[in-house]
Amino acid sequence: MTTTTHILGYPRIGEKRELKFAQEKYWRGEIDQTELKKVGAHLRQQNWQVQKEAGLSYATAGDFAWYDHVLTTTLLLGHVPKRHRHGFPDLDTLFRVGRGQSQSACGCHGAAASDMTKWFNTNYHYIVPEFSRDDTFEVSWPQLFEEVNEAIQAGHNVKPVLLGPLSYLYLGKEVEEGFERLTLLPRLLSAYQAILAKLAKQGVTWVQIDEPILALELEKPWLDAFKLAYQVIRSEVKVLLTTYFDAVTDCLERVVALDVDGLHIDLAAAPEQLDEVLALLPAHWVLSVGVVNGRNVWRSDLAAQYQRLLPVKAQLGERLWVASSCSLLHSPVDLDLEPALNEEVRSWLAFAKQKVSEVVLLGRALDGNEDAIAQCAVYSQPIQARKSASHVHKPQVQARVNAISPAFAKRSAPYAQRAAHQAEVLKLPLLPTTTIGSFPQTAEIRVQRSAYRAGQLSQAEYTQALKEHIADAVKRQEALDLDVLVHGEAERNDMVEYFAENLAGFQTTQFGWVQSYGSRCVKPAIVVADIEREQPITVEWSKYAQSLTSKQMKGMLTGPVTILCWTFPREDISRKAIAQQLALALRDEVTDLQQAGINIIQIDEPAIREGLPLKKRDHQAYLDWAVESFRIAAGSAKPETQIHTHMCYSEFNEIIESVAALDADVITIETSRSNMELLKAFEEFNYPNEIGPGVYDIHSPNIPTEEWIVDLIQKAAQKIPLERLWVNPDCGLKTRSWPETEAALANLVAAAKTLRKSLTEV
Ligand code: GLN
Ligand code: ZN
């Protein structure tokens, strides 16, 4: 009665981000397609080898992607947006859809990239499929079949993975008015029939079809469509229907009526669904239990999992499959690449490669292998010990969290009173100008940082270099005549990593990269223990910057929710508890900044919307503690200290009440790309405090003209009273160069001055 073991997918980026570097070389024209494809083939072989050597029953194929797996599906289905179709599609077609095509490159009209958006509640982003009424689907792109063949040739027992037809449709959007993309389903299903027929011919017995949308609160027409869809694509290949990121109990009765051969559920995200699923599982189905968390970095408690699954094994026998909860795409590749980690921390963690071994070991234990059972027990010891370790659960941190009272989350005066105090202290003109925090991270800064990290630059030398960058930024801002200055964030590599490195309770890694989108990867820090601020973090920098100018210097912090969302959280305490610990640490920083003479403090929360849970019914509870933790961080500010916050990535409409509930004195937001459309939400809601709608899209190299900015401010002024309006770019400027930054900011300041003048004239 051997237990089948598998994973839903393996990271495609390579141990040292080989795919990223190869892609970028190819895009720069430094290597050709043959060479790029070699890198991909090598990575796939490596990944399958890891799975085989560890002893998984299947090697997963079809999880590799040149840019994004949803985009691969688009190509597979012959569904390239019309503007990108020139002749037979090849790898360049795929890259064009993902990255856009400039005019010069093709000698014809440029063509915009498809939109990109977040993959459920992860930090991975996919390319949004575009649907029009007359779309057709035709299997033309051979990648999947070639890769299945590659795996077979290399002697692997291959299980291909496909994004399911309903999730593919659902995750896309109509690009034409007056039609519903669900009406395309019949045509789409013919393509899926063709895909499955081809896979059958290749000798595939099981295919994994991902339908993650089943974990959402799915609208009825979509749910209704599943039954027929899976009847239509029924073939001789067995189908494992995979769901992840949340429970499927809402629609379980429908799911178990589908014409498939097995179901995968995510027991890391929603462990409570197991019993219900077991009760309804059809007698001939396999159940793949996703117990090894594919999207976090923690070692599984295999001893506990073993105990929990024993009765399930007794009930299901061979029909029990053991798996990762979701694709390992969302976890770093290999813990063995981190020699600098201390042994204790290492014993708490598992990256993708280690997770593969966990799945195998658990499977063996469930098969009654005594050795494996004993190994599971040993493996779990460090996590058991961690539960009562006082350097993880710090009494002093817990005492502070327990002492949080409602007063912590309240400024000492309401906005109207604060605004009056602030006006007196800050003496800002109408339409004050400012920036969002970072200034260009020049090559010089980056070279100095790596030299410092490599030990080639002493602490004193590095500090001196940073001070020079700060002084330079201040001088340039004064020359531009901006009203509220920033120090420029030269000391930060990344707005979250910087705080993670300077707060106790975090562990950073050297190669813990995870794909974010295309060739872009992020390296989230890991929350390993209770979080504490052991000493001030930003105060010296801000104080130094303030000492160089008589204008107001804005302090710059990353908010608790954003730090939480962009790191790997602990699983032994709640997200809310982590956010509270962060909030208290940042609150101390606010106190100290204020003490040091900083009158304006910005607490960035660009990720607040991303943290929303998948199911709408869970939204409010999240928003409540997210808002509360921001307010705790800001709560120590005196009435005359002005608290700013900043958010990007639009779509605030659905959370506008919570944005207002942050009660920041000023919010700066990204609106320039939508031509101030976004302000509608703030207008309709009657947003009470001050707003700086971004008047300059920092993501584009174009320099906005003064007239353009004047026009945007006037548009904004129709919605927000002038006295509450700020003028600023829509995000930080770290990715831009100094010349373009200065040119754009000069126009921004000129626009504000022109408007002030015209207002005093009337
Ligand atoms: N203060 C940060 C910066 O300017 C904000 C970045 C962000 O919103 N993502 O870089
Ligand atoms: Zn931003």
UniProtKB/TrEMBL annotation:
Gene Ontology molecular-function annotations: 5-methyltetrahydropteroyltriglutamate-homocysteine S-methyltransferase activity; zinc ion binding
Methyltransferase listed as a keyword: yes
Details of cofactor binding: Binds 1 zinc ion per subunit. Binds 2 Zn(2+) ions per subunit.
Limits of the Cobalamin-independent methionine synthase MetE C-terminal/archaeal domain: 431-753
The protein's required cofactors: Zn(2+)
Enzyme class of the recorded protein, top EC level: transferase
Keyword Methyltransferase recorded: yes
NCBIfam families per UniProt: met_syn_B12ind, PRK05222.1
Protein name (record): 5-methyltetrahydropteroyltriglutamate--homocysteine methyltransferase
Organism field: Vibrio navarrensis
Gene: metE
